[in-house]
């Protein structure tokens, strides 16, 4: 089955993920000292980022016209919506920086080459980090799902201040509203 329109999604026809508690442990957790390759070719270590950062994680972006990972991808709660989520963060990244975020990062378990294609195609102005070795995922015990023999991140976002997670958005639904929710939180909780 070919990927449907990656942006035109009827969210009422997609099952919403439930809060399974898999991210409840993250608030207050220090980020581990793990470097991950970004789409800009830089090795980024989130724990070493000064100030406030925004990180949003997603399962797997698709490519227009490509075959879906599995035939029932849209019916897996929380799977559909990686491109709309990424585009929303792209569109609000400047506003997030104006609201106190020193940086915005995307995060998935896809390899860097796959991520770079997406970043170039969608004109994403920030690095997307590859945790294809699952080092950060395992160290933080991030929520995951197994699809087609792959470990994929469940959709979430978090704010970290000087290397410590201070707020978590989980579960995220619909994905295209996640960036707006993050921006509202940043405005309501300015950096001190």
Automatic annotation (TrEMBL):
<dbReference type="GO" id="GO:0034599">
    <property type="term" value="P:cellular response to oxidative stress"/>
</dbReference>
<dbReference type="GO" id="GO:0008379">
    <property type="term" value="F:thioredoxin peroxidase activity"/>
</dbReference>
<dbReference type="Pfam" id="PF08534">
    <property type="entry name" value="Redoxin"/>
</dbReference>
<dbReference type="InterPro" id="IPR036249">
    <property type="entry name" value="Thioredoxin-like_sf"/>
</dbReference>
<dbReference type="InterPro" id="IPR013740">
    <property type="entry name" value="Redoxin"/>
</dbReference>
<keyword id="KW-0676">Redox-active center</keyword>
<keyword id="KW-0049">Antioxidant</keyword>
<dbReference type="GO" id="GO:0005737">
    <property type="term" value="C:cytoplasm"/>
</dbReference>
<keyword id="KW-0575">Peroxidase</keyword>
<protein>
    <submittedName>
        <fullName>Bacterioferritin comigratory protein</fullName>
    </submittedName>
</protein>
<keyword id="KW-1015">Disulfide bond</keyword>
<dbReference type="GO" id="GO:0045454">
    <property type="term" value="P:cell redox homeostasis"/>
</dbReference>
<keyword id="KW-0560">Oxidoreductase</keyword>
<dbReference type="InterPro" id="IPR050924">
    <property type="entry name" value="Peroxiredoxin_BCP/PrxQ"/>
</dbReference>
<feature type="domain" description="Thioredoxin">
    <location>
        <begin position="25"/>
        <end position="191"/>
    </location>
</feature>
<dbReference type="InterPro" id="IPR013766">
    <property type="entry name" value="Thioredoxin_domain"/>
</dbReference>
């Amino acid at each position: 089955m070919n990927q449907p329109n990656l942006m035109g999604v009827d969210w009422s026809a997609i099952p919403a993920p439930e809060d399974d508690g898999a991210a409840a442990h993250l608030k207050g957790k220090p980020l581990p000292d793990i470097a991950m390759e970004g789409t800009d070719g830089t090795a980024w270590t989130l724990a070493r980022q000064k100030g406030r950062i925004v990180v949003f994680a997603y399962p797997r972006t698709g490519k227009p016209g490509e075959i879906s990972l599995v035939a029932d991808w849209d019916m897996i709660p929380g799977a559909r919506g990686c491109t709309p989520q990424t585009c929303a963060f792209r569109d609000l990244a400047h506003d997030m920086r104006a609201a106190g975020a020193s940086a915005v990062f995307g995060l998935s378990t896809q390899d860097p080459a796959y991520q770079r294609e997406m970043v170039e195609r969608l004109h994403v102005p920030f690095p997307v980090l590859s945790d294809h070795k699952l080092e950060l995922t395992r160290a933080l015990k991030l929520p995951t799902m197994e699809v087609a023999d792959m470990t994929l991140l469940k959709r979430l976002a978090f704010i970290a201040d000087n290397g410590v997670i201070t707020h978590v958005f989980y579960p995220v639904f619909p994905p295209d509203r996640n960036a707006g929710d993050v921006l509202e939180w940043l405005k309501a909780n300015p950096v001190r």
